[in-house]
Amino acid sequence: MRISILNPLTYLGLVxxxxxxxxxxxxxxxxxxxxxxxxxxxxxxxxxVAANTAGExxxxxxxxxxxxxxxxxxxxxxxxxxxxxxxxxxxxxxRPGPDxxxxxxxxxxxxxxxxxxxxxxxxxxxxxxxxxxxVFAGTDASRASREELLERMxxxxxxxxxxxxxxxxxWDVVNEAIADGGTNILRRSPWLExxxxxxxxxxxxxxxxxxxxxxxxxxxYGLENPAKRRKLIALIxxxxxxxxxxxxxxxxxxVNAGTTFETMDRALTEMATLGLPIHITxxxxxxxxxxxxxxxxxxxxxxxxxxxGLVDDALKRQAEAYAGLFRAFLKHRAxxxxxxxxxxxxxxxxxxxGRPLLFDGDNRPKPAFEAVINVASEASRKM
Length: 383
Ligand code: XIL
Hints:
Blueprint lengths: L7 H12 L11 H4 L5 E6 L1 H5 L3 E3 L2 E3 L1 H14 L2 E4 L5 H4 L11 H12 L3 E8 L19 H18 L4 E8 L14 H6 L3 H12 L4 E6 L5 H16 L6 E4 L2 E3 L4 H12 L5 E9 L26 H19 L4 E6 L25 H16 L1
Parallel strand pairs: 1-4, 1-11, 4-5, 5-6, 6-7, 7-8, 8-10, 9-10, 10-11
Antiparallel strand pairs: 2-3
Helix pairs in contact: 7-9, 11-12, 12-13
This protein binds (3S,4R)-3-hydroxy-2-oxopiperidin-4-yl beta-D-xylopyranoside.
The site of (3S,4R)-3-hydroxy-2-oxopiperidin-4-yl beta-D-xylopyranoside (XIL) has 7 residues, from loops.
């Protein structure tokens, strides 16, 4: 878009666009309040927020002042928190042996959540990524045996879940075990290769032993894709038939602006047939293809005008897409019990290039924030 003459309508558009970027006033509802009768609204936090210290988050350095602002925003907007990294095996259990654990980050996360009356989610116990190589190495051979690896898994789950029993209410027990392509349900991973397909059932059983009251979640991405969703449904049905304690579906929802209300509605309708609560666990919505794989739907052709204070097309499309997703979550509010954003703001996001969150790097609400709040107000007027 090129503006050569400022006619009155264009001028009005400019003013509206600029106003929609202002920090929310005291009487703008917060995310957690807007959805309080429907579902929890959460956020993934890094150690800088949990411990309130300056430091690096996803390769970006946050100053003391920025972290203080991040902390204030988290406390203002969200009633649920997930540890973005600090409970992953490589951080909480970096080495073998009796001194192999490092609870500093996870303890800070739990303390932060409890102090702020937030619902705590633990992420994640068994995953193929961010797991140190020693976990899969054998004591006597190059690879661990099935028994060795099962015993390591049992010990890890009992220690971690046991330590936060009664405090962390939900655990992502198994993360991303489903294969993206092909006909195999399960991805090739050391867990599958060494233990076999029952590694999933065993992980859930160990977590249930460690905290019988915890809600145990299976978490994966790409469940908006019908083929991957069919695999999820087959996997969970088979676990249910075996009596495995799986209590909720975690759908990560790392999506882009091409993900519509209809896409999400269909995904939630089909997943709801499993009869389990659904948690949207890692929501973010990319609008730029800079540094990303091309998705076809994302074009930031108008980004050049953002410097002038205009709401560029990408941010508008993002707001519309976020609104569609939240309309779908509300339609399925009997099933959707939690919606977690994967990061506090665009600056600290793991997909920072896609500007995928509701707040910009200075914690100013983006058009997407206002769209999400408006969806809640629209719905409450109808109810
Ligand atoms: C990401 C974190 O956000 C990054 O900081 C880290 O470097 C890599 O992992 N699926 C998951 C999350 O389940 O744990 C991942 O988090 C994003 C994809």
